[in-house]
């Protein structure tokens, strides 16, 4: 089995792909690369990445299998959004394609 030290995140709406360290936090990498995750409400009320507000929701278009397992909070909060994750709670371990502000 071959393991890599990097992963890629492709942001569909922004037309941008970033290469990150394997196990990188999706929210942190998005913000570090100028990707806006928040709508107006999220800009005012986000929790700063501790997984409590659910304003950093992203849709995973491809690569769900390369992400860390969803937290209990995510499972409860996103139960009606099957391909969505909270960016702040998601670690990336391979190539993923993400749609922001679904």
Describe the structure.
The chain is globular and about 35 Å long. The strands form two sheets. It has a five-stranded mixed beta sheet with strand order 2-1-7-4-5, with helices on one face. Strands 3-6 form a two-stranded antiparallel ribbon. The chain contains three helices and seven strands. It has helices at residues 26-32, 40-45, 72-77, and strands spanning 6-11, 16-21, 24-25, 57-62, 84-86, 91-92, 96-100. The model has no long low-confidence stretch (mean pLDDT 93). The longest helix has 7 residues, at 26-32. It is 19% helix and 29% strand. By secondary structure, the chain is an alpha+beta fold.
Keywords:
single chain, 102 residues, alpha+beta, 5-stranded mixed beta sheet, two-stranded antiparallel ribbon, 3 helices, 7 strands, globular
